[in-house]
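Lecture 7 notes: from sequence to structure.

We start with a single chain of 286 residues. Read the sequence below before looking at the structure.
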Amino acid sequence: MNPTLVRWLQAPSIIVLFLWMIVPLSLTVYFSTIRYNLLYPERSGFVGLSNYEYFWTDPSFMPALLNTLILVGSVLAISVVLGLAISILIDRPFRGRGIVRVMLISPFFIMPTVNALIWKNMMMNPIYGLFAVVATAFGVEPIDWLTQLPLLSVIIIVSWQWTPFAILIFMTSLQSQDQEQKEAATLDGAGFWAQFWNLTLPHLARPISIVLLIQMIFHLSIFAEIYVTTGGGPGVQSTNLTYLIFTQALQGFDIGVASAGGVFAIILANIVAIFLIRAVGKTLTV
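Now the structure, written as tokens:
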């Protein structure tokens, strides 16, 4: 095919990609360098890096950054470990496997807001929630999860929704594993763990990297679960960077500082993604 014609055919998608991604990013960088408060738009003006300094020196910044890293790391660890265990468990044929698979991946298709409401009212409510009912039945004082353990509560809520995504990816990848290798390993006397470390895990190296990358991108921007359940509190115990940016933009009406936080979040996401993919790739391919 003519190279010129190929370029013309690619042009519309490139233009759409530019308008969809580059332009908003450029505007965010622009707003991060000006003083722009929605309550006083007439006082706007260029301030350079002052918005970044204000965002970094905010007393809520370090707790929010630490909460973000703990939240992302915990959910990734839980979803990958449970996803691997469950996908391997249901990989072998058994009666009703199709129904079990559908039920296992169905939580992933629940909207985050609905998911948070289910856990807040049906599971973690200290009076009539399922956890409280079970604790009372055993004579234990019920825990007010969202008040006493807010960050852990958010981690559980997000992990419950995203573990099915890992199960779906791993379950699909296991279908392409060479069964002759597993049979040969079994005949040679290799047990379950030997087959897992030497055959299954290397086979799932790329799927694991994909799951980690995709989930990390989404988990860095978790908002609905925090907004619906804990509201970032008590204090800032469950506030992450996304929720901090929200408070700056829509509660403090400071678009400049919020844009500076958005730029920082983009940089952080790219740094974590590069480090994560390289570390996982080296570990699983050795």
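The longest strand covers residues 40-46. Keep this in mind for problem set 3.
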